[in-house]
Structures are given as structure tokens and as C-alpha cells.
Amino acid sequence: MRTIPFxxxxxxxxxxxxxxxxxxxxxxxxxxxxxxxERRLAAYIETxxxxxxxxxxxxxxxxxVVCLNSATAAEELNLRVLGIKPxxxxxxxxYTYTATASAAIHCGAKVVFVDIQKDGDTSTxxxxxxxxxxxxxxxQKTKAIITVDLGGIVCDYEKIFSIAEHKKNLFTxxxxxxxxxxDLSSRIQNxxxxxxxxxxxxxxLGASRVINGEKKFCGAIADFTSFSFHAVKNFTTAEGGASxxxxxxxxxDEELYHFYQLLSLHGQNKDALSKMKSDSWEYDIIGPxxxxxxxxxxxxxxxxxxxxxxxxxxxxxxxxxxxxxxxDELGVSHMVHHIGEMDSSNHLYLIRVPGxxxxxxxxxxxKLAEAGVSTNVHYKPLPMMTAYxxxxxxxxxxxxxxxxxxxxxxxxxxxxxxxxxxxxxxKRVISITESF
Length: 436
Prior knowledge:
Number of helices: 14
CATH architecture of the largest domain: 3-Layer(aba) Sandwich
Radius of gyration: 22 Å
Distance between the termini: 22 Å
CATH class of the largest domain: Alpha Beta
Structural class: alpha/beta
Mean pLDDT: 96
Order of helices and strands: HHHEHEHEHEHHEEEEEHHHEEEEHHEH
Helix content: 25-40%
Low-confidence stretches: none
CATH topology of the largest domain: Aspartate Aminotransferase, domain 2
Number of domains: 2
């Protein structure tokens, strides 16, 4: 019997050496490595090249990505920069993880759930929002639509932007409250001129979609985007995340970046690195804000992960190809990670076993675990959770998608033999479900 963990981090000697060097450097909080990682991520998002030589022209890549301590913090700061506040409504899919909703709730907004398409998107089988219901959910209070690129599969942003444009007559930009952040938020909302499209791309670093005939990577598609670098993600810094945004007419990237720094460091207008300069100790507190910066220790992991990232995504694609062939043979539905206009980051492998209920699904998961295969379920729809009312009756498609779903292990420490073992055990266990 093999032991197949669900999603262990792929850490090489390169990451370990970089962390060790960081510890020896004497600079372990936000500093030069964090800033370098931000520049390299900015280049990767724009070019798709994980090894792009950003230090040849560092100014080109400054002030475009902000590294933080989590994707949840990144999404919340995106919403706060946008000026989301009490009285506003934020639309999210019913099928997602709690972080998608909690960031909006932290800002005081009302979360409006939208059900997913029946059996998921027709091309990818991913649990994406029903776009008809999305358009119907928009009101004069709607300030943002949060999309979820679940499993690394990129949503149909052309359709989502077209809905936001079609409903722009309902949108009224927030007025400035006279504070620096309130003034920025008002200018951003006026510049965008419609409901903002905010991507929860926690799973999707490196994923891409053709938009208006041009290939765009996640981070360069939605108005604002958040990424997760948690330990289970393709690209990890142990804990961590990042915010980024598309260029907004009339808003300088440097100004936006500056406000993210303020929001992530107690509203303090100088970070520790800046204060180390001669005669630069003095600082001001602009607002009573938050503490969610990334450290150089975690950024050190990210720098070396980024060196390896193209290979990590490629290996995941190879595993997906093997799983696809096996699931097609078995008659098990699965997400499709690569179609003509979209390439996934290959983060999760979701399957739906036909003809089973929740109890049988649990027994399959238990039997697989007994055989050494760890699996998961992504996700239990949020309206089913205690924090969100425990009532999924209005979101029948989300519930139907969830009730027979199993997530198979997908990570770069799997050998081909491991993948064959997972498939063999899945086939064996499904074959005996009638005896459960």
C-alpha cells in the first residue's frame, strides 16, 4: 500500500538555502527580498515569463504588485482601496471558500450569493456563476463582483465585464469623505465608472485566458486581483498572498501601491527599510489601519519557487492528462483545465462520481483513505455553513455540484506510479459502491 498525501509543499534545497541566507542577512521582515519578489511577480503576470530579468529595468516593475501575509488580506485591501463600505453589496458565487465572502464582510458590505451554472461551465465543468442570475442580482447598491478562478480555471471575464458594463446605469460612484483613502476610492470608482470586477485568483497564478483576442494572465484581467501563496498552493511562501490591479486611467500605480503599504503597515507612511536610511526615522500614521505585510523570510521561499514555477505547472499538467484519461475511461466527470482560449494553473482536480449521494461520497473518501490515498472536497457551498445561514435551498446547482464531488491529490511530488495507484484505488472503490 502506498501513502499518497493530498497536497504537500514542494520545497527544494534552493528555497532552504535562500531562507538560510535571509536569516543570516540580518533583514528578516519586509525588505529587499519582498520588493524583488513583487517586481518579479509583476513581470510574470505581464509576460508569462517566470525568469524575466526584472533588475535590468527595475523601475518598470515597481509599484504593480503588493506582497502580503495572505490572500484574504489581499482581497480585503483590494476592497478597501475600492471604497467598499457598509451599505454596499458585493456579489460572490455560492460555490467558493469563506475567504471570498469574509473579506467583503470585514469591510461592512452585504454579501449577495449567486448560484452556479448547472453542472458547471459547459466547456471546463468548473463551478462558475450563472451569468443570467449574476445580472439579475445587480442593484443600485452593488459595488463589486468577486469572481473565483477555482482550481486554477479562469472565468469568462469577457462575459462578466459585459454584464458590468450593461448594468453601469445602476452604478453611482462613492463620494469622497475628505480623507486621503476616501478621496482615492472615490477617484477609482469614478474612473472605472461601473461595478468593479475583483478576482479571487487564490488558485490561479500563471493561469491565462484570451481576452479580446489577446492572451492575458490572471492579475492582468480583472480590475483588482488577489493571489494565495499558502502552503497547499502551486506557488507557496508558506503563508502569504499578493494584490495587483489593472492600470486605472487617471490613477498612478505609485499612489495605489503607497496606499496598500499604508493599509498593510498600521497606516505608517514609512516601512522599516525606509526608516533605516540616515535621518529617516520620523514617520506619520495616516490612518488606524492593519498589519498584514509579507516578510523577507517568506519572500525568500517565493523567489526560489518562482524560479521553478514553469516546471511545477508543467508537471501538474502531465498529471492532469493522466487523470483525464483514467476518469474518461471510468465515466467520471472532471474539470477540464485546458481549452482553446484558456490555460489553467492546474491547481485542483475535481471529479464528480455519478449516481452517488453524500453518504456514499463519504464512504468512498474513507475507503480511499484506508488505501493510503488522501482526498478532499472543494467546496461545501458557503450558504450551507453556520456563518452564512445553513440554508442552501436557493442555490440548488451549487448543492448538486457538491454532493458527489471528490478532489483527488494533485501535486508535484506525485510520481506516475502514484497517479496510477490513485486511479486504481478509485476504480476499485467506485466498483464496490453498490455494496455500501
